[in-house]
Write a structure and sequence with these properties.
This protein has a domain of 51 residues. Helix content is 67%, strand content 0%. The radius of gyration is 30 Å and the shape is rod-shaped.
Length: 73
Amino acid sequence: MFSIPDILVVSILALLLFGPDRLPKVMRQAGRFMREVQQTSNSFIAEMERAAEVQEAPPPLEDPPPQSSKPEV
């Protein structure tokens, strides 16, 4: 997924951008946000799976009565 150099570059950029004092707080907020997104995603997937479950098929329709080919007057 991500290589060590990628993670290292992102970490250094985050440290420079937020500083050592704010970085833990920002990371906690990011973690909470990601957890909330994941819970919402899981909830959405579960709801779609429930909606897609095969429901009991309705009983078959009876054969319609035969129709005559003569037009009614």
